Description:
Layout: E1 13-17, H1 22-27, H2 33-42, E2 55-58, H3 72-89, E3 93-96, H4 99-106
Parallel strand pairs: 1-2, 1-3
Amino acid sequence: MRCRGRGPEPCAYMGIAEAPGYYESLKGLPLQGKTGDIVRGFMNGDDLPAFEECYWTNLYKEYEGKDHEYTQAELERDAPELHAEFARVQPSTVITMGRHSTRYFLGDVDME
């Protein structure tokens, strides 16, 4: 199942994870299951905005399996949808989560 972004539009904060996992693919929504629980713990509305105050999406929109290495072709397939989300959300702050989403915006940076 294709995983669509969710959250307020427009929105000051946009979080971009790498790709949907198994639980995301079942519901078609980003940040479900264990990863979603962890992010919700950080985004508690005290030190950081509340989870519900942010728009959440994935760089890659389709779950391809647990150990799948995403390709440039898959990025090109999903980039127009991400660009459309940016146009609707108009975030002032982008939160990248993971190597692929960080490098999409910053180039080949060292993640260590």
